[in-house]
Every structure is written in structure tokens, then in C-alpha cells.
Amino acid sequence: MAEFNNRRRKKVCMMCTGKTVDYKDPETLKRYTNERYKIVSRRVSGNCAKHQRYIATQIKRARAIALMPYSK
Predict the structure, then answer these.
(1) pLDDT tens figures, 18-58
(2) Distance CA 35, CA 33 (A)
């Protein structure tokens, strides 16, 4: 019988590991948006709830000062 290993590794929150995200760095924020510039969900990005809220706030700030476009 063939052994199947279909388990995926749990995504680790990048913010909890020590990386920082700031609204002044749109290149880093693009990682948390899709091709239509919508904020991706926690399930997709792998962030914890606390840091997903923080990243969403940073993306919204960057949009407000025109560093990132609003969703299409």
C-alpha cells in the first residue's frame, strides 16, 4: 500500500517571526494583496489574527496617501 503524505505545512505568521511591515513600504504590502489589490485573507496569507488586522490597517493607510491603489 502506498503511503500518502498530503498534509500541508501550517503557514507561519511572518510578523510573529520578526519581520516588520510598514505603510511606507508598498513592495512588502503587495505580498498581502492579490492581483486586483484586494487584501488577502488570513487563510491565504498565513498571518495570525492580530497581525492580519495590523497589515490591513497599513494597507489602508498606504492607499489613503496614494502609495498603493484601491481595489479595482
Answers:
(1) 889 999 999 999 999 999 999 999 999 999 999 999 999 99
(2) 7
Contact between residue 38 and residue 70 where contact means Cβ atoms under 8 Å apart: no
Instruction: Quote the CA–CA distance of 65 and 23 in Å, as a whole number.
Output: 9
Q: What is the pTM of this model?
A: 0.82
Distance CA 24, CA 61 (A): 9
Distance of CA 25 to the CA centre of its chain: 13
Q: What length is written for the chain?
A: 72
Spell 10-40 as b/e; 16+ CB within 10 A means b: eeebbbeeeeebebeebebbeebbeeeeebb
